[in-house]
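User: Can you predict the 3D structure of NELFB factor? Sequence below.
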Amino acid sequence: GPGQAEMYAGLQELGVANGEDLKETLTNCTEPLKAIEQFQTENGVLLPSLQYALPFLDLHGTPRLEFHQSVFDELREKLLERVSAIALEGKVEERYKKLEDLLEKSFSLVKMPSIQPVVMCVMKHLPKVPEKKLKLVMADKDLYKACAVEVKRQIWQDNQALFGDEVSPLLKQYILEKENILFSSDISFLQNFFSPSPKTRRQGEVVQKLTQMIGKNVKLYDMVLQFLRTLFLRTRNVHYCTLRAELLMSLHDLEISEICTVDPCHKFTWCLDACIREKFVDNKRARELQGFLDGVKKGQEQVLGDLSMILCDPFAINTLALSTIRHLQDLVGQDTLPRESPDLLLLLRMLSLGQGAWDMIDSQVFKEPKMEAELITRFLPLLMSFVVDDHTFTVDQKLPSEEKGPIPYPSSIPEAFTKFLQENRIACEIGLYYILHITKQRNKNAFLRLLPALVETFSDLAFSDIFLHLLTGNLTLLSDEFALEEFCTSLFDGFFLTACSRKENVHRHVLRLLLHLHHKVAPAKLESLQKALEPTKQSGEAVKELYNQLSEKLELRKPSPAEVTETPSMELPLPTVPTPASR
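Assistant: Sure. Here are the predicted structure tokens for NELFB factor:
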């Protein structure tokens, strides 16, 4: 077929006979057998010792093709080894000159499957493949596919669109993987979204593939960062910020100094990475991080955009927020005010830089967001007063009560707290983490007291996937409370169901929780929840699927009709009539 002709087309240019030549010879000759023999001699392996060996192989029924193929394979292996050796020996200019000459000679055969690996190997070892050859490779889908990543990098760095096409499916896959973890059917307070260490996360398929595609190429690294910034702006999806940090740290693990030394965020990210590993910002690292922030020079403010994206990574926010809650508890013990703690102020500074990432990159105004004084003078002391309420209550419980009866747990929330959660992003983030903290402590009283403040929060943060993922995990610690009507009404009717109909993700999280805890919920409550959570026409596949799973589980729990009819007779204990024998 035409494919064959095209495949061997390159041979003629090199003065090597091909099938066409043989056909021509045979059509124009008088003695075909002689012609074939002559063709074999002229184009066979020119080795005197073979003259006698070949007829011997013929006697053994070994086809000439098989022999030539094995010689060819052997030679190709030797040639591939030789090419790789040339790439490492002698003066730089000389070795590349040799490889370029080799490429010139062999490139016309690039379509021959048997020769292709050699041509590809030569290109792989050339730091700069001639532009013309790159264009030919790029124009041919199969050649492009067969190329080594070293060659593709040279193509990509001048073809952002093509590189984008390669990277795009990987980024989609990455976001999907994150969402699958947040909606996973395993609910536990021990294992959650934030459990894997940074090192483990960087071993993920997407990060590894991107690292491999970038190699040491700063231009490609910059392109990926540009894609991530653009997507973050377009979608507000914070997982792109995680990937930005993971990619840099993956290159750091491989000690790719060509890139790490030119990324101005490298040392900051490295230090923050250690904090994320410990899930805590200790004093020594806090000083280091502060040094980086204070060290941003006039005229280099643009680096704040990058730093803010690193701090917007949910793993960073999680670490900063957990550290903030720990600091507040320590301050209660030390009788110190938040404004007197430089460590706490630094945590807040980094939280607001991270939370302001989208606005900064969108507006291209690179300066640190101003911290609201009220956050420090009013909101944090409020949180500390909750901690004090808990201590007081616990101590009161232990004191012998003198006629005064038990002291009730404070049930009202200061209006200021609710207002802060609605209007201030940082306050809201810290408030939510405080609620996760009391849930993890199984502090049901404090949980029910603060829960009503979550119905309306800043940009609906209390209904975000990360918070709901963590909350559902921590609620498994309060599983025994689900038997109580009052607890369920507060949690479901008072919180979850207020958003289910307008937010698909909340619907999913409630169903996840019930799939996990349905056996703990009071039967009457379960029935009304099953009605309230029924999918609508607008519901997505995930909701319908979860709802069906739940319905199946509840079906299995219902006693069968046979059991139901027999129960009355079982309820009356039968009088024990002594048998005559036992008298």
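Residues 566-572 have pLDDT under 50 and may be disordered. Residues 37 and 454 are 91 Å apart (CA to CA).
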